[in-house]
Design goal:
By secondary structure, the chain is α/β, with parallel strands linked by helices. 34% of the residues lie in helices and 19% in strands.
Length: 504
């Protein structure tokens, strides 16, 4: 679909009865919106969402406010963007369309163009068939639950909105160059590095090879050609299929590093020179320890899925750095990083939030990759596998997501939380260990006497739960903890198939 070039091409006839707006209420999630398209939201529904978003922005920033909008490479994303833009224009918002984008490119564009707000059309790592909208007003931040609810309320109250003013439309096609210049900055990589880039045929493939080549890396492309059918696997750096493919390619080519990116380019996965995947929370720990040598007394934020090693780090302790554990989710984490003025935030999913003076505070897979390369460059002649061995070994599960209906998942997590609290109160054991403590900051994370832990929370963007386990003892203990979690979940009768299970 060709992007419309001027507002005269747009139609704002919301009264047209050929198609009634359809918007599933479950698509309004904790900090963004995601639907199956067109089953859960149709074209008129997208226009209505854009109108509601525009009214929300106007209420916050005043009439004639501006928004920058982009889209990923899914086959229907440009179509979705155009209908959302119609609604925004009909609300009186001035729209600047930057075309094919990564989510961090849109975040950057809001800074670069000094726009009042942003909207990115992407379903991120969700499978084909999903669409989504990440949006925000405050620079580098995206909406939280209160904002999303307000937009939902506006939409539900304006099923046939009255059009009083039309915003201006502008297409800007040169933001890509400005964004790449921002990414590269004054970065110099003196070490000759052979790097495999895995993009899963997602949008990052249009950006990552050029960035790494300009840094002087020898680049080996793995599924970097854009293909919205995702013929090999879904671009998700937490997916073991993607990581295994990357691992095989690193070993085959004797590469120094493997880097994996998700569908909208805001997350990073890493495989070392031996082809071993390193979960992103441990990459974050390595970066935090390295950065702490230069930025002593810094604050770092980690999500509830992250390794407990952050709180045992002698290097962070030596450099008087503090670690704050917070809610999972890019919007929650971005806000927390800004709130406490942390140097960086790290999520196990691969979202890295790089704050001043290193970045602008938002999550950017390419910026994160550059940070990793700079770390490897400073660490010459050590290989990444050697650097990884500088931190204690723990045994981690991948992030596992059993199906659970959107309308039931939070209730299920509450029930599971009470079950685990009862186990602790009754001094019952999990995996032959007593429950030492319980955190309910985001779902329920229980820690055992030996430091091992398990997490059960509701997914913020899909009808599923999220399960993560870390053992300080063995993979066998991970399996034991998982079995006991799964036994508790099965008691609810509301759990479906897992997206992936333990690889051992």
């Amino acid at each position: 679909m060709d992007t419309f070039k001027n507002q005269s091409e747009l139609s704002f006839n919301f009264d047209e009865k050929l198609e009634e707006p359809k918007i599933s209420q479950f698509g309004f999630r904790e900090y963004d919106a995601r639907w199956l398209y067109p089953e859960e939201i149709n074209k008129k529904g997208l226009e209505l969402f854009g109108f509601g978003l525009g009214k929300f922005i106007s209420n916050k920033k005043g009439d004639n406010s501006s928004i920058v909008i982009g889209h990923d490479y899914r086959s229907y994303s440009e179509e979705v963007k155009c209908h959302v833009a119609k609604g925004l224009l009909a609300s009186g918002i001035n729209v600047t369309d930057i075309g094919l984008s990564l989510s961090p490119m849109v975040y950057f564009a809001q800074h670069h163009l000094n726009a009042d707000s942003l909207a990115m059309i992407t379903a991120s790592h969700n499978e084909n068939g999903w669409t989504g909208i990440k949006c925000g007003i405050e620079k580098s931040l995206t909406f939280g639950p209160t904002d999303i609810k307000s937009i939902k309320d506006i939409i539900n109250e304006n099923q046939s909105p009255e059009i009083k003013m039309i915003g201006q439309y502008n297409f800007k096609n040169n933001l890509r160059d400005d964004y790449l210049d921002y990414l590269l900055g004054s970065t110099k990589i003196n070490r000759k590095l052979k790097v495999v880039l895995a993009c899963g045929n997602g949008t990052a493939g249009a950006f990552a090879p050029e960035v790494m080549s300009r840094l002087g890396c020898e680049v080996i492309e793995l599924h970097c050609d854009l293909d919205f059918s995702f013929p090999n696997y879904n671009p998700n750096p937490e997916d073991m299929t993607m990581l295994q493919d990357l691992s095989n390619t690193v070993k085959k080519n004797n590469a120094d590093l493997g880097l994996a990116f998700d569908g909208d380019g805001d997350r990073l996965g890493v495989v070392d020179d031996k082809g071993e995947e390193i979960f992103s929370d441990k990459i974050g720990l390595l970066l935090a320890e390295d950065l702490s040598e230069t930025y002593s007394e810094s604050k770092f934020v980690v999500d509830v899925k992250s390794t407990g090693l952050y709180f045992k780090s002698k290097i962070l302790e030596k450099n008087k750095c503090s670690v704050d554990m917070w809610k999972t989710g890019h919007s929650h984490m971005k806000r927390r990083v800004k709130e406490i003025n942390a140097l960086c935030g790290f999520e196990k999913s691969g979202h890295f939030f790089i704050n001043d003076p290193l970045g602008l505070g938002f999550d950017d897979g390419l910026k994160s990759a550059i940070l990793v390369l700079e770390y490897l460059n400073r660490s010459y002649p050590k290989k990444f596998s050697e650097l990884k061995n500088d931190i204690p070994q723990t045994f981690q599960s991948p992030t596992m997501a059993p199906f659970c209906k959107d309308e039931e998942k939070y209730e299920v997590v509450e029930w599971v939380t009470n079950e685990i609290k009862e186990l602790k109160n009754n001094k019952n054991m999990i995996a032959n260990q007593k429950i030492e403590s319980i955190s309910t900051i985001n779902g329920v994370r229980f820690q055992l006497n030996n430091g091992s832990w398990g997490l059960i929370r509701a997914s913020s963007n899909k009808p599923s739960l999220v399960i993560v386990i870390e053992s300080f003892d063995s993979n066998e203990e991970v399996k034991l903890i998982f079995k006991e979690i799964n036994d508790i979940l099965n008691k609810t009768g509301k759990i479906g198939d897992y997206d992936q299970e333990l690889p051992y």
